[in-house]
């Protein structure tokens, strides 16, 4: 993979994104057309109408991003409604579909790490893009995500980073769609502003946002339209998979995780406590090794093809990210982290 560099005003950033990845964006629409039909019984036209109800929420909570989304559509030769639907795909599909993803924050010897595997349908593997976005009114940021979407997992020049865990639930209310909220977090200049996206703006459907900062702070936010549940580090660790477990969240939201969510979480906790030294320097290699774990395969942290699942429900690890927020360095492995140590690394200059 390579980094696609985007700069300028919102419209220019969006149009450059659309032009650079027009083919991948069109392919993403085809993937989600199939996914919406598989899980929600919606064809693309009906999904576009469903996405329309989120437009006023975005206009209220993050109006500037609409100009960028219009630019993406223009650059890719698509309708704005197509890009809106793509960026609201979680709200349309996650009432029925459940992803994977295993994420953790780790503070060790003054270094703050964030890391995760992103697990999703294999037909999105080649639609993953790495974007470096330098806007006129926001910090420069790196987002690893899906072509045509404004953000997913990443880090900005101030050392604010975010990871994502999908949550399957029938809840959907008022707030920012998940991927719009992730972009607003990535434009935050400090931890307080990042957390406020969940606590003040709110997120209209459930997810887990794992946020960290170069100053050594981290928090897991179980977001939904109400007050988010908050996980604070225990011995420097926050871990999460695909179920809610804070009382604040579980009192308000019923989720429907796959059975392996709890076993993956237990395995992640065990690996981080047993494999890493209590003190001393660690690096990206040790953390990618944890993300490559195959215990309880095929329902493991590193997920591979599982023929026992229905075809539409098979989830595999599509990429892994390790972020050293203290040094403002992000390292990406595209595909399963166990299959290659080839990686893409981006580093911002430290302040």
From TrEMBL:
<keyword id="KW-0012">Acyltransferase</keyword>
<keyword id="KW-0808">Transferase</keyword>
<dbReference type="InterPro" id="IPR005079">
    <property type="entry name" value="Peptidase_C45_hydrolase"/>
</dbReference>
<protein>
    <submittedName>
        <fullName>Isopenicillin-N N-acyltransferase-like protein</fullName>
    </submittedName>
</protein>
<dbReference type="InterPro" id="IPR047801">
    <property type="entry name" value="Peptidase_C45"/>
</dbReference>
<dbReference type="InterPro" id="IPR047794">
    <property type="entry name" value="C45_proenzyme-like"/>
</dbReference>
<dbReference type="GO" id="GO:0016746">
    <property type="term" value="F:acyltransferase activity"/>
</dbReference>
<dbReference type="Pfam" id="PF03417">
    <property type="entry name" value="AAT"/>
</dbReference>
<feature type="domain" description="Peptidase C45 hydrolase">
    <location>
        <begin position="107"/>
        <end position="337"/>
    </location>
</feature>
């Amino acid at each position: 993979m390579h980094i696609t560099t985007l700069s300028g005003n919102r419209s220019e950033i969006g149009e450059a994104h659309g032009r650079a990845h027009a083919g991948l964006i069109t392919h993403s629409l085809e993937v989600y057309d199939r996914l919406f039909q598989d899980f929600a019984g919606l064809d693309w036209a009906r999904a576009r109408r469903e996405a329309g109800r989120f437009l006023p929420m975005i206009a209220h909570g993050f109006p500037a991003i609409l100009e960028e989304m219009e630019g993406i559509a223009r650059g890719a030769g698509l309708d704005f409604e197509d890009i809106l639907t793509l960026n609201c795909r979680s709200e349309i599909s996650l009432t029925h579909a459940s992803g994977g993803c295993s994420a953790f924050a780790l503070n060790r010897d003054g270094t703050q790490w964030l890391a995760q595997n992103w697990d999703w349908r294999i037909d999105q593997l080649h639609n993953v893009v790495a974007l470096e976005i330098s806007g006129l009114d926001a910090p420069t940021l790196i987002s690893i995500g899906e072509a045509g979407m404004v953000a997913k997992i990443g880090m900005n020049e101030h050392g604010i980073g975010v990871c994502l865990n999908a949550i399957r639930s029938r809840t959907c209310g008022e707030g920012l769609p998940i991927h719009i909220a992730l972009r607003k977090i990535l434009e935050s200049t400090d931890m307080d502003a990042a957390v406020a996206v969940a606590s003040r703006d709110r997120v209209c459907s459930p997810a887990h946002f794992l946020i960290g900062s170069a100053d050594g702070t981290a928090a897991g936010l179980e977001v939904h339209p109400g007050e988010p549940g908050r996980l604070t580090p225990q011995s420097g660790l926050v871990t999460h998979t695909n179920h809610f477990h804070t009382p604040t969240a579980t009192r308000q939201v019923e989720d429907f995780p796959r059975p392996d969510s709890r076993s993956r979480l237990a395995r992640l906790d065990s690996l981080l406590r047993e494999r890493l030294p209590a003190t001393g320097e660690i690096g990206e290699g040790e953390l990618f090794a944890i993300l490559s774990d195959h215990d309880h395969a095929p329902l493991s942290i590193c997920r591979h093809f599982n023929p026992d699942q229905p075809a539409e429900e098979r989830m595999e690890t599509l990429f892994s990210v390790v972020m050293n927020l203290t040094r403002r360095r992000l390292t990406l492995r595209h595909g399963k982290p166990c299959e290659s140590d080839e990686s893409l690394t981006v580093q911002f200059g430290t302040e």
